[in-house]
Design goal:
Largest interface: A-C, 46 and 46 residues
Number of domains of chain A: 1
Strand content of chain A: under 5%
Oligomer: homotetramer
Distance between the termini of chain A: 17 Å
Number of strands of chain A: 0
Chain lengths: 240, 240, 240, 240
């Protein structure tokens, strides 16, 4: 065994063994954006509960007690759960995108900012929908709710398209199949949310149901499978 | 001393000395979920204080001053402290579970999401209980409060069962005794919270007291002991 | 190849390859301040949405429906978007400054604390402006809004001046051109915000528009270019 | 140069150069507690702004405009700034303590939890003080405000005493002078806050002033000096 090999193996010992993507300054920029975004997701998902208010004791009235007052608030619980699952699913998908990205540029920063804008906005349409779900004007609230989903779906699509066009910001050896799968997902996602938006003028309940189903669906799809994980190891794999 | 040994020791120098679990991509996924969850725990625990409102100057009335108005709010302080300790204990136990886990899958993601749903929800039953503790309908508020505790205890049990069944997501050489102890804890925990839930129909105060005691108990039990810590070193220990 | 060279290369393998700034204790202090600041930025940006309230069903009145009530709230959306972009731009610039800094001292801590004070304050002028934009007293709200921007611009300038005077807290081999560019930016930024402040007494809309444009401009300028990135590699570059 | 030396230097290259405290599992526990606490500090400091409410347009009345309504809110701004500086100072001191600590135990966890309880509680006395500063009952609000400061000062003292008694949880070679200085600080801090508490019955303004001065003072004292930094390098220093 020659000295050169010792050095090579020692190099691998230092960086390869831990199977991390080498932390270039650019990589560290994406980590930074990702951590900031994670903070925003975590806060937005926790603020949703502020939309559920405690019924005032003096408003309980003669007819019913606290139990029925709480039950009458069911649109708030439904909206809370729907938005919770949605933001969680968007967090999962955000991570999925970032697991492929190794560079950033101005455009990427804008698209990510636009996405976060819609995420932080989400507690408002959630509270709006909860307030008006049983009101004659429910369709307006439902349209604002589904509209926010449409907007964030388009922001996601823009983020991904910007990053993946010609593999601009991606790792060098991406799994083509995964990339195509994500591209497909972002092609049809916005269309389906547009359908939910249109549905809100017919039946708000149906529209919210579609949004809920899609959130669950995207949460499943978005979680890195083993195939994805192997992508995180390009250097390691090549070296072997 | 041969060259092979040099390489081996140099390898150990690079990874073993720092006594970290090697960061495989899968490990990094669990770290990511844990950090996001930590954010949610930290925010939920800090939002609790928003449930304590400042008495309006114009509501002080003729009878009493600010001091008595503040004292009359004691259910808010009690609820605040109880929920604070509970969320802190759940955070401690969440970490304890994650110290054993090295892989994730879809099911794990769901169970963790369900758990976080109940954690972020907790400020609502806390404020509800505080508002109604001295009201004739206190039992309803107490049942919602204890019910949320039951639900989160079951989510914790589900998370642990999913992860530990056949050691599916655990580190390879877990300390069997620790694992059994946690499994026992999650077997009896939900039952005891169910008892607190039943108690809430008899005496809300007693029910809250049981919840508080259990939070303190689980916070103690959940903190990694030295025995746990040794588990984090399987590679290191084996290599020696 | 001699043994000395092996050691040298092995050293590089261990630290140089990952292209990180060596983590001295001082460096770890700046990381700590940066992460705490990031948390504050992320929370402040997410709290903005709490300034947008759901119109009460009983306030909808006879004249208009929910749709027109939501449209009438447009100043809230405008203020939300403006403050969102501003805080995001300030986060980007905060990172830019920190990418040059490797030491901290008491003065730096104070300036950073002052900056965070204005950042956490920002949800208040945002809500104020939104409430009064169509009110006869809009100029007062606009002045408070633009005034907060002026104050935070001066805090930024102070932070940068303190850190860069004689290169006090900077990395040892900074790119002089970048440094000069940032210094220029912080020389003219506060002046332009002062102009926006003066404008608020003439036209609040114009003043807000200037603030919005400057936020977008600074977000672009602030993002590390490749030239900046090369600065993060002084050790690495020197060693080659 | 012998092979043994190569190995030794390569070892140093891998771990010593980056000058980090070796990350034992116990160390990683303290990092975890510290990061969670940091999150709580960051959120509590950002929630303070929610205590400042926008004056309602319909409450402006005939007598004065928005400007005077905003000026009349000065107690809110004062309380906001005082609490902001206090929480920032407590964060700085929290870090200072953690820079000496390398082990945790149950008691440490309790003391830290108690401290965080008072930190998350702080937005309430802040809002209370702001609401009642110009009210005849200001003394009550001032006592609650200063009382919370006393309580958190005692929690800090308890945390430090628990950690430092016989050097229980400290790094092995602490700088005795630094340790003594911190111990002194925590001996007199609670007493001074007790004095501020007593003062609140004489003059609330004076009491708040003392609290503010002490926050500034502790922020200065708490920031690690170079002497502290050298403590973080015990292994590194010994090896040289």
């Amino acid at each position: 065994m020659g000295n050169a090999e010792i050095v090579a193996m020692s190099k691998e010992a230092a960086s390869g063994n831990s199977a991390k993507i080498p932390e270039t300054p650019e990589r560290s920029e994406t980590v930074r954006i990702e951590q900031f975004s994670d903070g925003v997701f975590a806060i937005a998902i926790t603020l949703l509960v502020l939309g559920i208010t405690v019924p005032k004791a003096r408003d309980l009235g003669a007819g019913g007690g606290l139990g029925s007052a709480l039950l009458k608030q069911w649109p708030h619980y439904l909206a809370f759960v729907t938005s919770f699952i949605t933001i969680l699913a968007k967090w999962v998908n955000h991570h999925r995108i970032f697991s492929f990205i190794q560079r950033t540029d101005h455009g990427f920063l804008y698209w990510n900012g636009l996405l976060l804008l819609f995420i932080t906005f989400m507690p408002f349409p959630t509270a709006l929908l909860a307030e008006y779900l049983r009101h004659p004007e429910a369709a307006v609230a439902g349209a604002v709710f589904a509209g926010t989903y449409v907007a964030s779906a388009f922001a996601f699509k823009g983020l991904w398209n910007h990053a993946s066009r010609n593999g601009r910001l991606l790792a060098r050896d991406p799994d083509e199949r995964e990339i195509r799968q994500i591209t497909m997902q972002y092609r049809y996602g916005p269309l389906m949310y547009l359908a939910a938006f249109a549905l809100s003028f017919v039946s708000v309940g149906l529209s919210v149901g579609v949004c809920l189903c899609m959130a669950v669906f995207f949460a499943v799809k978005g979680w890195p499978t083993l195939r994805t994980a192997s992508l995180l190891l390009p250097t390691f794999t090549r070296k072997r």
